[in-house]
Amino acid sequence: MLPLGLLNAAQGKPMMVELKDSDCINGHLVACDTWMNVTLKDAIWTKNNEHNDQQEFVKLEHIYIKGNNIKLLQVDQSVLADAKAKQEQQFAQGSMTARGGRGGGGGRGDRDRGRGGRGRGGGFRGGRGRGGS
């Protein structure tokens, strides 16, 4: 399970985000993108004060967290189980195959596909030369 797939499965669910400066934010996931930028709603931000070992709590309606500030994302185990089950169901239906993706999956032995052979032309003895008759 890839992290972005797990995050997409966790939308609407509660999660905890730990930042690189050791602050923690708990809230419900609204959205995430390719760079793991995260938007949470009904969030509680726990700010750690390094000078006097006290914590400050701030309640926020919405918060946007840039992915490069995130150290750790924690979701409930049930979200992971649901995401795995959904992935297995998609695989069983054939929507995810071993050779899928861009390019059609032609490997090393699949030389006769695409836009023709290598080089220019396909004439006498494989092209590429001048002369040729």
UniProtKB/TrEMBL annotation:
Residues 119-133 have a biased composition (Gly residues). GO terms for molecular function: RNA binding. The gene is LSM4. Residues 88-133 are annotated as: Disordered. GO terms for cellular component: spliceosomal complex; spliceosomal snRNP complex. LSm subunits form a heteromer with a doughnut shape. SMART domains: Sm (SM00651). Binds specifically to the 3'-terminal U-tract of U6 snRNA. It comes from Aulographum hederae CBS 113979. It is found in: Nucleus. It comes from the Eukaryota. Its main location: nucleus. Belongs to the snRNP Sm proteins family. Residues 2-79 form the Sm domain. GO terms for biological process: mRNA splicing, via spliceosome; nuclear-transcribed mRNA catabolic process. This is LSM complex subunit LSM4. Keywords: mRNA processing, mRNA splicing, Nucleus, Ribonucleoprotein, RNA-binding, Spliceosome.
